[in-house]
């Protein structure tokens, strides 16, 4: 415990695709907590498409700049506390950045109960599961018998969205890249159908899979897939906008989907953007309901755990290319 | 009363701009009502951007085809009734089409009380006023002190949206084409500011007029102006999508606004498409409130009344080019 290895964002990617050379390894001293702070040992770092969005400028979080320790959320354990609210051994979720050790003010730490396996705290009980839960139920508002479509369906959020929609009695179609992911959705996670966006025209494939139209679309990607879903929406349909990963890794925002706002009018759609923290006042009952589904086997948790701090840049680059199935994270400690 | 002059849609404009040659004058016999029907004398035909949208295919209404009497709503008077619910002299609103006489089933007629001047029944108490009222209050949900922006602000709907927003205590900015319209908005209708979209960059002009951002955007136009408003929206803003006139008169839908869905997520926007008939269960109290505002002088009614059946094609073409101020209609009888 003499050195703190860190991954620094050496250079902003700007309009380029994110690449390993945008990062570098750094070694710093392990920091010492001041009054009201805690020293954290980082166990698992969460990989999220939002990591890339933060490099584009301020969003709901301030932008990351060149030379900063790369930002990211992690599950961490309190090793030393100088705040009465925390004691060694407590588990917390925090924006620690990509490093082995971090000192943060206690008030910036979200204390979480120890549930085994700990990785579940970053997947189904973490931001991914919470995002799926609130986005689908609060913004999508699916009713039994309706048709729900989710993009990035084999990803951390999408794989949970589809399963919750099934629990709610909906017909569920996932959009994912490649036959392997599509097979997984239908054969292991109980989706009714899957559309491989790499295999051809998504609009036509969705129309074939959902001949009665789409009532709820949970969007994780934006772009052409958003457009394909939009043109398949039913009157009074709902679109939950969770992220636009297709626009994150590259230059200025591309042209938006055709049919906006024309089809939103004629179909009387409701399009709602959200971020999971908007719903934190209702977090505890949500986690309890998710845990009930997991414990009863109704909700299967898929995780993709990589090893070692130095694997973080590649893990993010691969996530943006869609290589993961389920929640991707890196075990650091 | 021996002939019924009609304007027929001679040819669908397809991807072209609507032009006089797409219409022709026709003469037919005055129709005779059957059981359950009424013969209507058409008084005023309403001109709406939606007239053009109907030529592009089915929307919330079936498409218009070449050879059909041009579709359109009108204020009409019952001349002969073969249904117990109607008697001669009753006023109705109906989809009569562009002609002097029409026979329609009584159940397709919306009976309306006689309020003078009759033109108000097509403007502030008609679809325009109802659309402004429900779209702003139900979809935009403005709160006192918020900033409301409306496009096509000098038009039939926009001119009422802005005035209702002022009644509700908001700061109101109208977007319109040309200095004359902008002057009217500020000097006669009480808007706080106006942006001339023909005079330069709308995004920058809006930013200057609304330095604290936009909370509610009432969209009548889509396209670049939608995009300019989107980039000025505040967190948790609402966009009421009423129409997309910029996309009506031309070929296939153009690329959508940049920032969709990315900014919808990061700003947690709610985007709601609507059509006035969605709110008809609440029509009577809405009309009563509108009438109260008109009678007390809080809401000024602007109308643009042209004369004669044969002026209808030019009236629609001009409306699509934005030449009207306030509600455009044609006096037929």
TrEMBL record, chains A, B:
SMART domains: PKS_ER
Enoyl reductase (ER) domain ranges (all copies): 16-330
Keywords on record: Oxidoreductase
InterPro entries in the cross-refs: ADH-like_C, ADH_N_2, ER, GroES-like_sf, MDR_fam, NAD(P)-bd_dom_sf
UniProt-recorded Gene Ontology molecular function terms: oxidoreductase activity, acting on the CH-CH group of donors, NAD or NADP as acceptor
Pfam families given in the database record: ADH_N_2, ADH_zinc_N
Matching PANTHER family: PROSTAGLANDIN REDUCTASE, PROSTAGLANDIN REDUCTASE 1
Name of this protein: NADP-dependent oxidoreductase
Source species: Caulobacter mirabilis
